[in-house]
Write a structure and sequence with these properties.
The chain is mainly alpha-helical. It has one domain. Strand 1 and strand 2 form a beta hairpin. Helix 1 runs antiparallel to helix 3. About 20% of the residues are buried. The model has no long low-confidence stretch (mean pLDDT about 95).
Amino acid sequence: MDSERCRSALDKFGAFIMEHVRDRAYRQYNMLEEGRLKSPRILALQNAVAHLSEDHKKIVRECVWDAVDGVAHDLLAAFQESHDLDEGIEVFVDGVNVAKASDMLHGELFGPEGWIAKFSQYPNTQ
């Protein structure tokens, strides 16, 4: 399989993960911090965050972002490990097995050419 097709599939998968996992979680937290959520389930938490000092909000935000990036990393590592151990869980994008194309999916997140830098609406949180 040619490297351009593999890179295209990896980038498509990376953009998907950034949009549907990382950026969605960041937007949700930002809306909570700004007091814009309306779900009865979340109002008490939103109210508690609203009463925090700016320094404490910054700490909470960093904890949330660290957790989200950790989940994204661990999910990608699990896909890679499943592929490497032939456990039967594979992700294909446009017919390309992304774990096979990458050899280290969780490493695709980071660096100046990583998925966070290229595709996230929040590239400067890492």
